[in-house]
Amino acid sequence: MCHAKTVRDAATALQAAVEANHFGVMQVHNLKETMNKKGVAFVHECLIFEVCQPQQAKTVFDENMSVSTALPCRISIYEEDVKIVPEGFVASGVGDLLQPVGGVVAVIVGDIDLAAGV
User: Which terminus of the chain has a smaller tally of CB atoms within 10 A, N or C?
Assistant: First the structure.
């Protein structure tokens, strides 16, 4: 469980955890902002991070380019029932190719509290 007080606090911790695990943040999507711009009333804070480790991605792509639809990996931080929830997602169904990447994504999500100093 994430002990950050806000989505922004957790996002700062996530940035540190991503870097500590030799990944990079490619893009951050602000779901609330995007939905509101499209005229959809959406009150939940939610940031979706696309993260990648280029050398690992190249290894996976050299083996099977169809996996490109599953990368980059995504980590979401959102509010739910007054809690801040980090979630990592790596697509299943692609055999052992993404297992090393999924393991690191799980570590990054688990490191959010540590990076926040909790």
Answer: N
